[in-house]
Write a structure and sequence with these properties.
By secondary structure, the chain is an alpha+beta fold. The chain is built from 5 helices and 16 strands.
């Protein structure tokens, strides 16, 4: 669970009828973050500010949303929720909340006219808690599917998956909304010739009808933005180990990696160790859906 990292809270807003929703991650103050996008069709907001060379080095919330690019509007409500509590990057006219948002395409499932917006993002913040967060068909994963490369008739349920890996006091956790064009590869069989042959016709892969895997990796390590970027890249390696095919032109795969800085840097935390644990946590978070 992402909330295994002390200070991290998670909240969902879910519409089970329209089959869409949003998920908000609220980190403790001073959390550093970076992001990596590898899919060919991303829907994101405020990710550029997380680049290592940019001024702002901390974030106040992360939004994962259904509704494709429409769902990015949920971040407006999250910003309002943060502003009301005095949370944000300090400026001479008041704090400006830093709220990166990532969205997936679920408009072809349920009622595509219903999308998360500002009110829904605000509600997800109110629901956020430090206890175990719900997984499966909730929040941003409510309308998620996987395996659409095999055609709509072969699509299976995706959803919110989460996993935690520890090494001594070091904790790395991942929370993902898995809505992949590819299939969840729970035992390696999706990479063999028999499994892939049926998905490829004379013109290539079967057309997609809505995809993207998005998520957050959190650690209690103290890292720089550049090191958080390395962790986010490791998370994408985890996606590639658990989803076949990953990072296609039909996906908007994007991950945010955040470091709360709880661990004393004198403890000698190696970013490559954090990155490796991120690979494993992400892989397990995806595969937790296959075994659900």
């Amino acid at each position: 669970m992402l909330t295994d990292v002390p200070g991290v809270r998670v909240g969902h807003w879910t519409d089970e009828v329209a089959r869409t929703g949003c998920t908000v991650v609220l980190p403790p103050a001073g959390t550093v973050a970076a992001a990596e996008v590898r899919g060919g069709a991303p829907a994101t907001r405020e990710l550029d500010v997380l680049a290592p060379e940019r001024l702002v080095h901390r974030i106040d919330a992360v939004v994962l949303a259904g509704g494709s690019a429409f769902g990015l509007a949920a971040a407006d409500g999250v910003m309002r929720w943060c502003e009301e509590r005095g949370v944000g990057f300090p400026t001479r006219v008041g704090p400006v909340p830093i709220v990166p948002a990532l969205a997936l395409f679920d408009l072809a499932v349920g009622d595509g006219s219903v999308r998360p917006g500002p009110a829904e993002g605000y509600t997800a913040c109110d629901a956020a808690g430090s206890g175990p967060a719900a997984v499966g068909a909730v929040g941003a994963g409510t309308g998620a599917t996987v395996g659409t490369w095999l055609g709509p008739d072969h699509a299976g349920p995706g959803g919110i998956g989460s996993a935690t890996v520890r090494r001594g006091p070091l904790t790395v956790a991942a929370l993902l909304a898995v809505n992949a064009f590819g299939s969840i590869d729970h035992d390696g069989s999706a990479t063999d010739g028999t499994a892939t042959e049926g998905a490829v016709d004379g013109d290539g892969l079967r057309p997609a009808f809505g995809n993207t895997t998005i998520g957050v990796i959190a650690t209690n390590a103290r890292l720089t933005k550049g090191e958080c970027l390395r962790v986010a890249q490791g998370g994408h390696d985890g996606l590639a180990r658990a989803i076949v095919p990953p990072h296609t032109g039909y996906d908007g795969d994007a991950l945010v990696a955040m470091a709360t800085g709880e661990l004393d840097p004198d403890g000698g935390t190696d970013v490559e160790v954090v990155r490796l644990l991120a690979v494993v946590a992400t892989e397990r978070a995806v595969r937790s859906l296959a075994s659900a």
